[in-house]
């Protein structure tokens, strides 16, 4: 909305959910809307006017107060009243407004019976040849139960009347079917359950297809899929909807649905004297025999509206007025080619109950270029946003593909919090994976391909001590390799690469993660004086990509080979629903050995010892959660002169191992009193792990600042990170600290000056600190 037109008028939106927030947001962008009034609205449906946006306000008139809504419409004289929920339509609100001469976008009570009575809708579909499943109608619980028993198989059970999307049961057994009949006839849904439909169990994917209608023609929207069950993997009780996405790739031929379902329904309603004006919503099951209608709704869906309207490029007011004036055929709708996915955050106890009054945080910045927050069960109390319903709010992500939209939605939603927040983590799983064991995202063939592709490179790391490796259930390493040691001590470590994997997968450069994992684990045991014997890796993802996994394993094998370590074996796991699509998780375990007399444990560290820092190649494998926040939205591949490369280059520089440096010191006869691998927590938290009580370390950070990798200064500046915080999050250029006696410091620096070794700095010393306990704040950073 560049500017408000001279004929701009208010629009009245009736309802209080996320659907109504989405409607209000779209109307506010029309130049012909002076303000959006929402009755009664929620905590998110009020805002001030801004460039491109009309103001919005709430009016405390319930959607069920038909007299109040009509009176409010008379007062506002809106260009149109748009009714969100189904109940007011079924109760005749559109009829009341029409009688008062006020345009209403929403069907009459007679037309709304298509949703208000599932029994009527089923009979209507049969009359007009609209494909649907077979069903029987019952008003007597005993007769219904006898019929189900006689059939001997489970059936879908539906309350015929309006039940807020919760009156449908999909049992898995005959006993479950009887339980559903008992629930509905038992009165849970009141009069809505006085008539019950027992329907055949259709199998396939569910898709929602919504269309605008002016009573004669339809203008179809992109197909959408929602997620009704509360639990991941589509388990648990039905809800009003825990998320949705559009367009849904499962439906290939939308026009066929227009021809066989939507247009016949609109024409049939007109023929029966019930012209349908508003949104007709067809819930479909894509069966092996073709699409069949599960149900009709007489309004926008929730949460489908939250993914559909952000994709609508035509002015929503133009569309709505074309429907109310009977001129929809003259308007051509434009839709974005993007994908949209919305994720609902529900209150604790939902759907059985809702928890009100919980403080909601993280909504200060609600909309971004690619995400929108839609409020539902929220309210503002004394300036504090609180929960006020079961489905509290939803975040919609937009992107050029569904995976991008999904990642953006979840990333934004994770910044919003309230106590007991319920979120399904698998929204979109139907489109991003399939079913059957292979379709569910688990490909045995892919796993076999990984093994074939890595077998040779892994074997290159094996010596005669490896007795069983790739392909065996367990790796076997001969203990005879330790026979020349006086008192061999096994040293082991397990670690992961962490969120560095997010960056690597985003730019498809996962080979370096293999180096990261191996070298990190080697450094962890090296600080105790151990050399590596063998390494085991584990790779997990939502969907196994053989090429990606092979690249990772080749990197791990190269790192093992360079360090004289056997890559003994590993495991791959494909776990859709546990990991989000596109994610990769890698973990490694290393086992090494050291003779007991050569263990390095820090016990020899004393006052006056010198600290030598060994230069890191970059962040190694720590600090990436902070780094990712700093680089969010930036081009990772663009050249940046300050980094002499791209952000991806700097952030994915592999973790190095310091085996060669430690060996050089040993060959030079330099006693090593302690080694500290600088990982998460930086110098302040890692160096104290090897310092005895009564000592502290003083470090001059200016000594290594100029020679540290430039990514650290770049992150500090770009993120506005205070340097003390930076030293706790990052290694800041020091990957390992060596503690040596002062009289051997010069020899140590000489030994470390050899070609191919890491840059080293004499950067501080150990001092007496009698009051300092072991592990306490034993590091003083200067400069």
Summarize this, please?
With 783 residues, the protein is α+β, with helices and mostly antiparallel strands. Helix content is 30%, strand content 26%. The two termini are 53 Å apart.
Q: What would you say this structure looks like, in words?
A:
The protein is an alpha+beta fold and 783 residues long. Among the domains are: 101 residues, 3-Layer(aba) Sandwich (Rossmann fold); 124 residues, 60s Ribosomal Protein L30, Chain: A (2-Layer Sandwich), CATH 3.30.1330; 173 residues, Phosphoribosyl-aminoimidazole Synthetase, Chain A, domain 2. 30% of the residues lie in helices and 26% in strands. It contains 26 helices and 37 strands. The strands form ten sheets. Strands 12, 15, 18, 19, 22 and 23 form a six-stranded antiparallel beta sheet that branches. The protein has a six-stranded mixed beta sheet with strand order 33-35-30-36-34-37. Strand 20 and strand 21 form a beta hairpin. Helix 7 runs antiparallel to helix 8. The longest helix is centred in the middle third of the chain and has 18 residues.
By DSSP (H or I, 4+ residues per run), the number of helices equals: 26
Q: In terms of structural class, how would the helical and strand content be classed?
A: alpha+beta
Q: Tell me roughly what share of residues is in helical segments.
A: 25-40%
Q: What average pLDDT do the residues reach?
A: 89
Q: Going by CATH, what is the homologous superfamily of the domain at 610-782?
A: PurM-like C-terminal domain
Q: Which percent range describes the beta-strand content?
A: 25-35%
End-to-end Cα distance: 53 Å
Largest sheet: 6 strands, antiparallel
The number of distinct β-strands equals 37
CATH architecture of the domain at 610-782: Alpha-Beta Complex
Low-confidence stretches: 434-447
Q: How does the overall form come out from the CA principal axes?
A: elongated
State the CATH class of the domain at 610-782. Alpha Beta
Radius of gyration: 33 Å
């Amino acid at each position: 909305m560049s500017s408000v037109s001279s004929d701009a008028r208010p629009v009245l939106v009736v309802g209080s959910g996320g659907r109504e927030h989405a409607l209000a947001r779209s109307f506010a962008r029309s130049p012909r809307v002076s303000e959006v009034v929402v009755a009664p609205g929620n905590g998110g449906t009020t805002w001030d006017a801004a460039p491109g946006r009309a103001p919005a306000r709430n009016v405390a008139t319930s959607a069920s107060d038909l007299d109040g809504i009509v009176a409010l419409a008379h007062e506002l004289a809106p260009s149109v009243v748009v009714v969100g929920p189904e109940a007011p339509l079924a109760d005749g609100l559109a009829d009341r407004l029409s009688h008062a001469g006020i345009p209403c976008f929403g069907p009459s009570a007679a037309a709304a019976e298509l949703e208000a009575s599932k029994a009527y809708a089923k009979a209507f579909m049969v009359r007009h040849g609209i494909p649907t499943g077979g069903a029987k109608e019952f008003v007597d619980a005993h007769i219904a139960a006898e019929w189900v028993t006689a059939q001997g198989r489970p059936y879908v059970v539906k309350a015929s009347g309006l039940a807020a999307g919760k009156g449908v049961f999909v049992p898995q057994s005959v006993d479950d079917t009887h339980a559903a009949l008992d629930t509905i006839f038992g009165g849970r849904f009141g009069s809505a359950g006085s008539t019950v439909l027992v329907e055949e169990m259709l199998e396939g994917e569910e898709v929602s297809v919504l269309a605008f209608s002016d009573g004669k023609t339809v203008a179809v929207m992109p197909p959408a899929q929602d997620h009704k069950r509360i639990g991941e993997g589509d388990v648990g009780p039905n809800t009003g909807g825990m998320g949705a996405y559009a367009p849904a790739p499962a439906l290939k031929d939308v026009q066929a649905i227009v021809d066989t379902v939507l247009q016949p329904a609109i024409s049939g309603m007109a023929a029966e004297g019930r012209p349908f004006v508003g949104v007709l919503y067809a819930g479909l099951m894509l069966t092996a025999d073709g699409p069949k209608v599960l149900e009709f709704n007489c309004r926008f869906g929730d949460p489908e509206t939250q993914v559909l309207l952000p994709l609508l490029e035509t002015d929503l007011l133009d569309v709505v007025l074309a429907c109310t004036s009977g001129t929809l055929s003259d308007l051509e709708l434009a839709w974005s080619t993007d994908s949209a996915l919305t994720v609902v955050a529900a209150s604790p106890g939902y759907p059985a109950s809702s928890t009100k009054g919980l403080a909601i945080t993280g909504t200060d910045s609600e909309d971004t270029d690619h995400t929108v927050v839609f409020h539902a069960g929220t309210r503002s109390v004394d300036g504090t946003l609180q929960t006020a319903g079961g489905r509290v709010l939803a975040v919609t992500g937009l992107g050029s593909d569904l995976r991008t939209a999904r990642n953006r939605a979840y990333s934004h939603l994770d910044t919003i919090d309230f106590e007991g927040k319920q979120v399904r983590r698998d929204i979109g799983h139907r489109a991003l994976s399939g079913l059957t064991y292979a379709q569910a995202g688990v490909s045995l063939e892919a796993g076999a391909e990984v093994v074939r592709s890595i077998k040779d490179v892994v074997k290159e790391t094996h010596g005669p001590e490896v007795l069983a490796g790739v392909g065996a259930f367990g790796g076997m390493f001969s203990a005879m390799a330790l026979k020349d040691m006086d008192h061999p001590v096994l040293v082991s470590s397990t670690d992961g690469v962490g969120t560095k994997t997010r960056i690597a997968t985003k730019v498809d450069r996962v080979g370096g993660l293999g180096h990261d994992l191996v070298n990190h684990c080697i450094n962890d045991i090296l600080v105790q004086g151990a050399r590596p014997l063998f390494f085991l890796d584990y790779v997990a993802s939502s969907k196994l990509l053989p090429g990606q996994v092979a690249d990772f394993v080749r990197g791990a094998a190269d790192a093992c080979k360079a360090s004289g370590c056997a890559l003994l074996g590993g495991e791959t796991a494909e776990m859709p629903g546990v990991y989000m699509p596109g994610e990769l998780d890698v973990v490694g375990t290393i086992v090494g050995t050291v003779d007991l007399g050569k263990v390095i444990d820090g016990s020899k560290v004393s006052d006056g010892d010198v600290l030598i820092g060994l230069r890191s190649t970059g962040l190694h494998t720590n600090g990436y959660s902070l780094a990712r926040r700093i680089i969010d939205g930036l081009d990772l591949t663009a050249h940046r002169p300050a980094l002499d490369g791209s952000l991806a280059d700097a952030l994915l520089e592999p973790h190095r191992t310091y085996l060669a440096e430690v060996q050089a010191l040993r060959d030079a006869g330099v006693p090593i009193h302690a080694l500290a691998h600088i990982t998460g927590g930086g110098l302040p938290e890692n160096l104290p792990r090897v310092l005895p009580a009564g000592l502290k370390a003083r470090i001059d950070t200016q000594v290594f600042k100029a020679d540290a990798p430039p990514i650290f200064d770049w992150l500090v500046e770009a993120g506005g990170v205070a340097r003390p915080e930076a030293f706790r999050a990052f290694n800041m250029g020091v990957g390992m600290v060596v503690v040596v006696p002062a009289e051997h410091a010069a020899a140590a620096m000489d030994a470390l000056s050899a070609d191919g070794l890491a840059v080293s700095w004499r950067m501080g010393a150990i001092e007496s600190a009698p009051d300092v306990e072991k592990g306490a704040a034993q590091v003083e950073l200067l400069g």
